[in-house]
Write a structure and sequence with these properties.
The protein is an alpha+beta fold and 170 residues long. A seven-stranded mixed beta sheet has the order 2-1-5-4-3-8-9, covered by helices on one side. It has a two-stranded antiparallel ribbon with strand order 6-7. The longest helix has 17 residues.
């Protein structure tokens, strides 16, 4: 079962909400601030753990279809509670060209702000938030443990954001 939109279980943020700003280290130890990416869409993908089967499949789909994100001018940020050291090894072993962010300490703080941290298991849920260039969430989905997200849904959401931006009257 896929749950999306405002008021999803666990209090996850939904379409129309302003994305909370944050700064996390990427897999190389470099700080990444969300607000510094304003001006183009951002695909924020929370996942439980590096090297796990479903997560690797989901992130592999993103790696294998870069045109979806390039055509929209979107930046992909994948976030887990793993350390930057584990994320660097994971990124190198899987050939990911997008940034992997460590929500390691305080443990899961950013996932909590987005409403996708599972306190019982100490990991992020499978939550995705697609932000427009102004930092507003335009698409969100939170999948239950064990259910992968669909990359085609990302493509459709990015296309809708692009259409809305082109049709917006200034």
């Amino acid at each position: 079962m896929t749950v999306s939109g405002p008021g999803v279980p666990g209090g996850a943020l939904g379409p129309g909400d302003r994305a909370p700003d944050f700064s996390l280290s990427n897999q190389f130890g470099e700080p990444v601030r969300l607000s510094a990416l304003r001006g183009h869409p951002v695909v924020l993908v929370f996942y439980p753990f590096a090297f796990s089967q479903i997560c690797t499949g989901e992130l592999g789909a993103i790696r294998d279809r870069p045109e979806i994100f390039a055509e929209a001018g979107a930046e992909v940020l994948a976030v887990s509670v793993d350390s930057k050291y584990a994320l660097r090894a994971y990124g190198e072993s899987e050939g990911y060209s997008f940034q992997l962010l460590a929500d390691f300490w305080p443990h899961g703080a950013v996932a909590r702000r987005y409403g996708v941290f599972d306190e019982a298991s100490g990991m992020a849920l499978r939550g995705t938030f697609i932000l427009d260039g102004g930092g507003v969430i335009r698409y969100s989905v939170v999948n239950p443990r064990g259910q992968a997200r669909t990359i085609d849904d990302y493509a459709a959401a990015l296309a809708r954001i692009g259409e809305n931006d082109r049709n917006r009257i200034e």
